[in-house]
Design brief:
Layout: H1 3-19, E1 38-39, H2 59-62, E2 71-72, H3 94-102, H4 118-130
Antiparallel strand pairs: 1-2
Length: 154
């Protein structure tokens, strides 16, 4: 399917999903696509490197024990350009992210499984990709010729 077809499918199906079946903090849309709040989405222990301790999440910053295992929800804009995903880059694709949330997150999550069909997952990924605009590129400005300063000779 073309990019336009994917976007159309995503807008139609995922709009219903986000407002109906997916009632999870990470999927709430407000003024920004995602609420940027702290949420306990759980850890996928299969991905944690051997010997690493548990990721304590926002507790490392706030020192509030209620924040252990909570992570800030990232904005959803420009997801096409921001891989890898999650706070630690554990997922290379949006499909992997959707699968993670579909299962109810990882160990310690407060999320419920979504039980999406393969078609619904595809639609959700297509919808998320529609939140990306054109890639922003910046031209490096020309730098003036610089001469090394000779100390004592101003």
């Amino acid at each position: 399917a073309s990019g336009d077809d994917r976007a159309e499918l995503g807008e139609e199906l995922a709009g219903e999903l986000l407002r109906g079946r997916i009632d999870q903090p990470a999927a709430q849309l407000g003024d920004l696509p995602a609420n940027l709040g702290l949420h306990r989405v759980g850890e996928d222990r299969r991905i944690r490197p051997v010997g690493r301790k548990r990721d304590v999440g926002s507790y490392a910053i706030t020192k509030d024990k209620r924040d252990i295992g909570k992570f800030q929800t990232a904005q959803l804009r420009d997801l096409k350009y921001t891989a890898p995903y999650m706070h630690n880059g554990m997922f290379a694709t949006l499909d992997q992210v959707v699968d993670f949330y579909d299962k109810g997150g990882g160990e310690g999550a407060v999320l419920q499984p979504l039980n999406l069909t393969a078609t619904e997952k595809k639609a959700l990924v297509a919808f998320l990709l529609t939140l990306s605009g054109d890639k922003v590129t910046m031209k490096v400005p020309d730098q003036p010729d610089m001469q090394p300063r000779v100390y004592g000779k101003n």
